[in-house]
Design brief:
8-stranded mixed beta sheet, Rossmann fold, 20% helix, alpha+beta, Methylamine Dehydrogenase, Chain H, 4 domains
Length: 727
């Protein structure tokens, strides 16, 4: 029985077409003994030049030529699939729909981003008054006609007369800071390179605080400074440096070994008060914990000495939004409150034991974010991975929930000088819409909504629960066309992430609608390691518990099969970054359970990952093979080390970005080579493909054309491999 349209029928004819074999990759075994275990790495040469231990994995001509051959092979496969042109046309129609971001208010001005039609990048706009005429502030295409330059962030001053902003090119995320006069559109001479993160303008707007890398080749070289407008950044005053670890921890009883490890975490950050009298300083001790200090910033301005007072040291938890009120600080955190809370700190008596709860910990709701408006604290909760927003007075008195347009994901753009705010809302079957709201009285009006050429009412969304291998209940969203027949033949994409306290909540993707319209199913599992159910959920997928994440994902796949949604020959899995590790590990552990996998910008060689780029940031999340105890569990799941020759692996598409400053492309290179040489499947029908984008990084900042190509690659790959025929 045929259950397909012309597009998918055309795609299916490829299964009878013989593909060329992938380019051959030379095996050059490197043997080493790690904690008494001898291992062999056949493709270490694909890492690049490792002669400089401080800058590992430099691209060599040989690796570049090998990558070109792999890219050419992949393009010859994906570009020639029947139905590709039709799919791209449909995706372009969907992705050229105008999109607009929620405004941020500064004085009487409203700043926002918008992308229309075929524009490669979002353009930054300003309005004088909410209903005033919009004016272009920054159009990346006029700056760089290639479309490869993106505006990464903007930071107007209090009255919106000046705007600092960051830009980077080709996905490298190394933002350079610039400053603009908003009235004239003129760029000031101030320019600061080095992956800059903005801090705070001074009340007089004569300068600002910021943090950058002193060396963009050294991810652990953060420095915080103050810049006075009109001066050269080399003259900027220093507040602290990441490498000066004793500055933070002197007298706090850390061993030399602990101090050395702290140098390569996410490191320090600083949050100044609006009046520039106080500075909250944090230092990440891992991906699930950080330490906090408070400093008298006014004293630093006078003397140049930053005196840190410890206020919360050695506790597990994270910090979110903050709001200074004179000598008081409201802070969102999860210290001794695994689902989150909001506390009030007297900055003249700031020790953790004296923090006062304002929004109490709720064992049934997880705080995802907090917004501070005039007289209102708006708390964005996750309730079973869906948004609920509650309002509180600054003394903690409940003021009722904010009415949402439906069940889905929502966020707020608010300012502490007004009750006006902007609510962004979306779900799997609801396009992202923006509402202007009044947090004082719950009034709401639609401000912007895209006109997407799809029919969301035809899409059904449900949330189910299933038991993982150890009987832990796990939730999963399932999206498909209404009236879907559960006969086990539906092509299904299972997506997951499972790490770093990141939550997978409902979101709208217009590009998924061709999939739904053709009878496809999309499932998103809320795996352990994520943040959907609080700190404990995250920690249950870290370090020696990482296998729980893979078990949760495998159990999700099995549930979809057992409940009639699909079957292994119609099931594909997808994930990126940490999710690329997820799909890579799942493929090597259960290759029989899937027919296709996408592993995007992935970590895959977990024995060596910590040696490249910023990866030591993630040692507290994964562990490191340098530790014998951690090597024991890492070696068991590390995808690259567990590829087994002769195994019938499903078709896999690996992707990477040559300019990625987070995850090195070596992971995708080595894994693709290993699997191409190991798989027992017929690569004329189940190929192992690699695409390394030479104009991209980890994924951010891609122009529209490249994003259309990438979505088309992934979707046509799944369509080809999963099919719609009932044999």
């Amino acid at each position: 029985m045929i259950r397909t349209t012309t597009l998918l029928a055309a795609v299916l004819t490829v299964s009878s077409t013989t593909l060329a074999n992938p380019p051959a990759t030379e095996s050059r075994p490197v043997k080493e003994t790690i904690h008494g275990v001898e291992i062999t790495d056949n493709y270490r040469w694909l890492e690049g030049d490792n002669s400089n231990p401080d800058n590992m994995g430099i691209l060599t001509d040989e690796v570049a030529q090998w990558t070109d051959a792999q890219n050419n092979y992949t393009r010859s496969v994906l570009d020639s699939l029947p139905g590709r042109a039709k799919l791209e046309k449909r995706l372009r129609e969907l992705m050229e729909v105008p999109s607009i971001g929620a405004p941020s208010a500064y004085g009487t001005r409203y700043f926002y981003s918008k992308r229309e039609g075929a524009q490669p990048q979002a353009v930054r706009y300003v309005r004088e008054g909410l209903n005033g005429d919009e004016r272009v502030l920054l159009d990346p295409q006029t700056i760089d006609p290639t479309g490869l330059t993106t505006v990464s962030w903007t930071a107007p001053n209090k009255d919106g007369s000046l705007m600092a902003f960051g830009m980077y090119k080709s996905g490298d995320e190394n933002s350079t800071l610039y400053v603009m006069n908003v009235d004239t559109g003129e760029w000031l001479a101030d320019e600061i390179p080095g992956k800059v993160n903005f801090g705070k303008w001074t009340p007089s707007s004569d300068g600002f605080f910021y943090q950058r890398l002193e060396d963009t080749n050294d991810a652990y070289s953060a420095v915080a400074k103050f810049h006075k407008l009109g001066t050269h950044h080399t003259q900027d005053k220093v507040l602290y440096r990441q490498k000066d670890i004793n500055f933070f921890y002197d007298g706090l009883g850390k061993t030399d070994e602990q101090l050395e490890a702290l140098k390569t975490t996410w490191g320090p950050f600083g949050t100044p008060s609006d009046d520039i009298n106080w500075l909250l300083v944090g230092y990440w001790t891992g991906t699930a914990g950080l330490d906090l200090w408070i400093a008298d910033l006014a004293e630093w301005s006078r003397t140049g000495d930053l005196d840190l007072t410890p206020i919360c040291i050695g506790k597990s938890g994270r910090v979110g939004a903050t709001h200074f009120d004179g000598n008081r600080l409201y802070i969102q955190h999860s210290f001794e409150a695994p689902n989150g809370t909001v506390s009030l700190i007297d900055l003249n008596n700031p020790d953790f034991k004296d923090w006062k709860p304002v929004v109490k910990h709720n064992p049934n709701l997880v705080i995802e974010g907090v917004s501070f408006a005039r007289g209102v604290i708006a708390v964005n909760y996750l309730e079973s991975a869906k948004t609920r927003i509650a309002r509180f007075a600054y003394d903690g008195t409940p003021q009722g929930d904010l009415e949402l347009p439906g069940i889905g994901s929502a966020s707020l753009s608010a300012s502490d000088d007004r009750t006006e705010a902007f609510l962004s809302f979306s779900s799997y079957n609801t396009p992202r819409s923006i509402y202007r709201i009044d947090l004082a009285n719950n009034d709401r009006e639609l401000w912007a909504s895209p006109d997407v050429p799809v029919d969301p009412s035809q899409i059904e969304v449900k949330q189910v629960w299933y038991n993982s291998k150890d009987n832990t209940p796990v939730s999963m969203f399932i999206v498909h066309k209404r009236g879907l027949e559960l006969d086990g033949t539906n092509p299904t994409i299972l997506y997951g992430y499972g790490g770093f306290d990141i939550s997978m909540t409902p979101y709208f993707s217009a590009t998924m609608f061709p999939w739904y319209e053709e009878g496809g199913v999309y499932a998103v599992a809320n795996l352990r390691g994520g943040g959907e159910y609080g700190n404990a959920w995250h920690e249950a997928g870290m370090l020696d518990q990482k296998q729980n994440v893979f078990d949760d994902f495998i159990a999700a796949a099995q549930w979809l099969i057992d409940n009639g949604y699909t079957a292994p020959k119609h099931l594909g899995i997808a994930g990126g970054s940490n999710g690329g590790l997820l799909t890579g590990a799942t493929v090597v552990q259960r290759p029989d359970l899937f027919s296709a996998a996408i592993s995007a910008v992935p970590l895959l060689d977990m024995v060596r990952y910590q040696n490249f780029l910023m990866a030591r940031y993630w040692v507290p999340e994964y562990g490191t093979a340098e530790d014998p105890d951690q090597y024991e569990y890492i070696s068991k799941y590390s995808p690259y080390q567990n590829v087994t020759p002769g195994t019938k692996y499903p078709a896999v598409l690996f992707t990477a970005g040559e300019n990625d400053t987070r995850v090195h492309p070596l992971h995708a290179r080595k894994m693709a080579a290993a699997m191409q040489n190991a798989t027992g499947s017929d690569q004329s029908t189940e190929p192992i493909l690699l695409w390394v984008d030479r104009d991209a990084g980890h994924g951010g900042g891609k122009p529209l054309n490249l994003r259309i190509r990438d979505v088309a690659d992934q979707r046509i790959f799944m369509m080809w491999q999963l099919g719609m025929l009932d044999d």
